[in-house]
Design brief:
Elements lengths: L1 H6 L13 H11 L11 E6 L2 H25 L4 H15 L6 E8 L11 H9 L2 H14 L1 E3 L9 H8 L5 E3 L3 E5 L12 H4 L16
Antiparallel strand pairs: 1-2, 2-4, 2-5, 3-5
Bound molecules: flavin mononucleotide.
The site of flavin mononucleotide has 9 residues, from loops.
């Protein structure tokens, strides 16, 4: 388990071979061993494999990608490391419809849990009911050697994504997870030392800062 957590990372370069349902369905089932606010368990997983559906999602993504990619490239000009790090994402945007499967975790909104608005706690409850399952799924993919990454940009226009997927207004797509056999490599990932992140009792009290905890 710790090995999967240490090496799970956004893998964007994927082979085009299909992912068998015998592998995918148990991962989806296991991912739902996750908490939800008030135990609502109001998930829907939209699994997109159909070529035309994938092409529709790709078109939606590229509308945004064509605007922001030249900007991010310009901002990174001269920084070879950053430009290199952008390549897997660029590859993926350009080959989006060829990726084998997308899992789109969706959640039903209700009066207590809503994706936007006030009070903020209802927004936290809404997204907080989806992302634990998403992380379980990412870890499950890692454990079986599937590449995956959590993404929000491809479904940036929620009403358009909802139309493509035939979702009712009460059900929001939250993110999209392209999954396939990994071409890119897994971690280790780069994260800050734990002593820099953990504060005890009050903000600013970091007894492990500057040490290798
Ligand atoms: C809420 C959220 C939204 C994200 N959206 C995107 C996205 O739209 N496109 C993308 O390529 N990666 C997306 N990511 C993935 C992050 O870019 C990635 O996790 C981060 O760069 C760390 O990468 P690593 O886990 O490989 O170290 C998203 C991650 C989160 C948590």
């Amino acid at each position: 388990m710790a090995a999967a957590m240490r090496t799970q990372r956004a893998v964007r370069r994927l082979h085009t071979d299909p992912v068998d349902h015998e592998i995918l369905m148990p991962l989806l089932e296991l991912s739902l061993k996750a908490p939800t606010s008030s135990n609502t368990q109001d998930w829907t997983y939209l699994v997109v494999e159909d070529r035309e559906q994938k092409a529709r999602l790709a078109r939606l993504y590229r509308k945004l990608y064509r605007v922001f990619n030249p900007i991010t490239e310009r901002l990174a000009r001269g920084d070879d490391k950053q430009l290199r790090q952008m390549r897997p994402g660029q590859w993926q945007a350009e080959n989006f419809e060829d990726l084998p499967v997308f899992v789109i975790p969706c959640y039903r909104r209700n009066i207590k849990h809503r994706p936007v608005g006030r009070p903020q706690i209802s927004v936290a409850s809404y997204y907080g009911s989806v992302f634990p399952a998403v992380q379980n799924l990412l870890l499950g993919c890692r454990a079986v050697g599937l590449g995956a990454s959590l993404q929000t940009l491809p479904i940036w226009q929620i009403p358009a994504a909802r139309r493509i997927l035939g979702l009712p207004r009460s059900v929001n797509p939250v993110c999209i997870i392209p999954i396939g056999w990994a071409k890119g490599r897994y971690g280790p990932t780069t994260r800050p030392p734990i002593g820099e992140v953990v504060h005890f009792d009050r903000y600013g009290n970091r007894p492990y800062s500057g040490t290798e905890a």
